[in-house]
Amino acid sequence: MSTHIHGVQEAAYNEFKLNDRIKNRCKVNKNATPRVVFNEECQMDRKSSKNIQFGRRQRTYQRCQRQGIPRNPKTLDEIKTYLEQEEVLNRIGKTLHCEPKMFYQQTVITALFAYCIFASESILTNLPAILNMRIDGTFKVVPAGPFKQLLIICVDVSGHSFPLFYVLLTRKTQAAYMHLFKQLQSKWKLTPMTITTDYERGLRNALRMHYPSAELVGCWFQFIQAIRKRASKISGFMTFLKTDSSAKKLYRKFYNIPLLKDDKINIAFELLKQEASSFGTRFNEFIKYFHDQWILKEGPSSMSVFLQSHRTNNLLESYNSNMKVRVPKSEELIKSNDYAKVFAGGTQVYAKRKKKYRDRDNFINTHQLKFEKGKMSVTEFFDKMGELEDCDVYIEDDDDDEIEMDPLCMLCITNNKTTMLEPCNHLKFCEECVNELMVT
């Protein structure tokens, strides 16, 4: 006798079958991430997938995919041996182009530190003669084991930023960075014109040694974050700023000091220092910190982002945040597949900047030029910069929350966009056009 399933029971049964199919695919498919498998199965059975949430079942799918995978290498020697195996190289050590090229480059092990270099040879062989580079590190997506940081080195090409090197490092010391950049320079002759980084001293010292002709630019966002963090540690200072709007306005002027040319920064600091004296001793500890850390230790030339096309590393910060979602911290060996999917082939960090960020840049550039030509005083410049909305907290998350104004498929321009692309997670095409593309 056949069982007749009604209403809620039928829906629950279909959800169970869909979930079972996803788990079975995860067991046999080691190259696609659980998220990709989940999306593909849900696309084929949309009715049953309405109440299935990936986040609630993610760990189950990951456990299914781990079945049959060998033990994760723990020591540096094991990692080096593992990455150099032919089967591993074919699976995660090459790019995803039609004609795969090497993505894994080498593992270097010394007595004090070690690092693994990953890079797309396709990008390396097509670099322009002069580069603008960005460098940022993250620890949130590093596999469990000896590595402590993933250093990402990007290059700007034709208005777009592309990851060039991914380096897993066991240490964040100047010696480790020196060794790394010497190794990179010996194999790939890079000629950066500008290098944008945060204010990590060991990293910046190593860059100065290996690229003496490059202009080393600090990250304006990291600068703001640093002084906000220090200000919050001064007893009663933030409470005072909340209760006195004039003091808060003065404090925020310090955010905009890097927007000035380096030879004007000391003058601007002295003017703000003089203005702060009208508040008695309230600003004394903050002024001392700013003078010691930024005027003396870092120096005006390291701080200034005057007329820079990109004043921050927020593109990389956003990219790192995106990676954190796509490459879960809890995973180990599975993460190698995710790295290959996300990184290999030259992922573009961003496609188009939002209008509000372009307008902000135009606003800053216009008044920087006026100040440079003597049409504005330092005080007038700071007053204008004070008009910037939330200049201290913006982050350019172009990939995560870009609003797509046109709802139609980019190919047929008839059907609505329905299919989300990997890895960008943008809606670009309808399902019909995607199916045709897959067939061709």
UniProtKB/TrEMBL annotation:
Signal peptide: none annotated. Gene3D superfamilies: Zinc/RING finger domain, C3HC4 (zinc finger) (3.30.40.10). InterPro entries: MULE_transposase_dom, Znf_RING/FYVE/PHD. It holds the Pfam family MULE. Residues 134-225 form the MULE transposase domain. It comes from the Eukaryota. This is MULE transposase domain-containing protein. It comes from Pseudolycoriella hygida. The lineage of its organism: Eukaryota, Metazoa, Ecdysozoa, Arthropoda, Hexapoda.
